[in-house]
Structure formats: C-alpha cells, structure tokens
Amino acid sequence: MKADMLRKVPLFSTLTDEEFDTLAHIFVARSYRRNQIIFMEEQTGDYMYLVLSGKVKVAKSAAGGKETIIAIHRAGDFFGEMSLLDGKTSPATVSAMEDSRIISVSGDDFRKHLLHNEKVMLQIIQVLCARLREVWQVQSQNHRTAGARIRMGLYDLAAKHGVRDAHGTIIDLKITHQDLAEMVGTSRETVTRALARLREEGLLEISGRRITLTDPQALLTGL
Predict the structure, then answer these.
(1) What span, in angstroms and rounded, lies between the C-alpha atoms of 98 and 101?
(2) E strands within 110-175?
(3) H or E element: which one contains 184?
(4) What is the CB neighbour count within 10 angstroms for residue 185?
(5) pLDDT beyond 60 at 208
(6) What's the CA gap between 96 and 102, in Å, rounded?
(7) Which tops the pLDDT comparison, 46 or 136?
(8) Confidence label for 115 from pLDDT (cuts 50, 70 and 90)
(9) How far is residue 196 CA from its own chain's centroid?
(10) Tens of pLDDT, residues 55-96
(11) CB 92: neighbour CB atoms within 10 A?
C-alpha cells in the first residue's frame, strides 16, 4: 500500500514516511461495486476498515427484516475500531453505496501495530468523541415528529456530505427515499410526502436521486 494513498485517510495523516514503511504490510485494499456487501452482521468485530474512495452504509436489521441505517461513511472515514478496542460487537451489515475502495486491518495487526501508536490513537479518540456527540443529538430528536426528523436528517447529510454550488448545497450522495426513511426511522411514503412539501416551499430541489438544499439552515426553522 503506497503511503500517498493512505495519507488521504486522516487517521494516518500525521505519520512519517518511516512509520508508514513499518505499517505498510498490515493494510489490505479491496474494491467493491455499488450495492456489494463488504461484511455481514455475523462478521462484525474481525477487522477495522478505512474508506479510501467511495461511500458505504452501515445498517442493522430489525424484526421483520426492516433495516435501519446507522451511519454513512465516505472517503477518509474509518469504522469497526470499537469492537477491536473493547472486544464487544454491535452487529451491522456494511455495503457499498457506490463503487468503493476499502482498506482493512485485522484485529491482530491493530492490537500489535496501531493500539500503542499515540498519533493514531489520538485521532481515534477524537473521532469517537465526535460520534458520541452525534448520538446525543440524534437521541434529542427522537421525540420529534417524522417531518422534523426528516428535516434534521437532511440538514445533517448536508453538513457531512454537502457540496456548495450556485443553487445551494448538493447532498453528495445518491440517496433514495427508502435510505432516508431508514436513517430517520419512518416510512418511505412519509419521506416522499415530506420532500414534496419541502420542494413546494422552495427549500430543496430534486434531480433523480440527487438533492440540493437551497438553504440548509432554513430546514431548522421551527424545530
């Protein structure tokens, strides 16, 4: 694995070339096509993963086969480290939302080569703190109506995956109504109706599966 490729991953951005040389052998890169499964729920806890390119979604199945999207990771993000840190698993299925290239690190290599690297662990701690704050924010929204959760979900997607252009902020994900429903805990039909209302209000534009928010901050009005 070339050092210049790994430097795209913030987790390793502070490592020196010498440190990369000692770690290169632990990284395994694989390519995945859109919708391809990266790992299933029963495989959770075996590896740590880093997204080199593309986007992936982490989902959990509930009774009746209903799926809830827990997170969406893009290039530079990593996941799976918590299971390697505490030995506990949170079963989830991870699949590619678009063609993606993923780096994996085995649990043994993580514990042997990364766990005692202060630079890497500091980056992991910072990311875990940010994720904890996100969980608190989501929990504070649970009591809100489905419409409010959809607006907040769109705002969060724009904050994490937004690209500015002359018309507003494009959510740089080819996300379906079903995907959004699974993220905020409602039905696809409810999402479709809510998006139609937001479109009528001039708060968003839809082209295919691409959503552009004309003013993301306006979505929070009245929440």
Answers:
(1) 10
(2) 162-165, 168-171
(3) helix 177-184
(4) 16
(5) yes
(6) 10
(7) 46
(8) confident
(9) 26
(10) 999 888 776 667 788 888 988 888 888 888 877 777 788 999
(11) 21
- Give residue 198's Cα distance to chain centre: 24
Report CA Rg, the chain. Answer: 19
Q: What is the longest distance spanned by two Cα atoms in the chain?
A: 56
pLDDT tens for each residue of 167-198 = 789 988 878 888 888 888 888 899 999 999 99
d(CA 72, CA 110) in angstroms, rounded, equals 23
- Phi/psi of residue 92, nearest 5 degrees: -155, 155
* Residue tagged 């009774």 (tokens): 63
Contacts of 119 (CB under 8 A, 6+ apart): 14, 15, 19
| Average pLDDT over the chain, rounded to an integer | 82
List of residues 6+ apart from 37 with CB closer than 8 A: 93, 94, 95
Beta strand pairing status for 162-165 and 37-39?
unpaired
Task: Give the Cα separation of 31 and 52 in Å (integer).
Answer: 10
pTM above 0.85, yes or no: no
Q: Which two tokens stand for residue 115?
A: 């766990």
Mean per-residue pLDDT, 7-21? 77
Query: In whole angstroms, how far apart are CA 58 and each of 84, 93, 159, 202, 207?
Result: 17, 6, 18, 31, 25
Residue 15 CA to residue 117 CA, distance in Å, equals 10
- Which residue is listed with tokens 């691409």? 210
- Give the span between the Cα atoms of 210 and 122, in whole angstroms: 35
Predicted confidence at residue 33, as pLDDT, reads 95
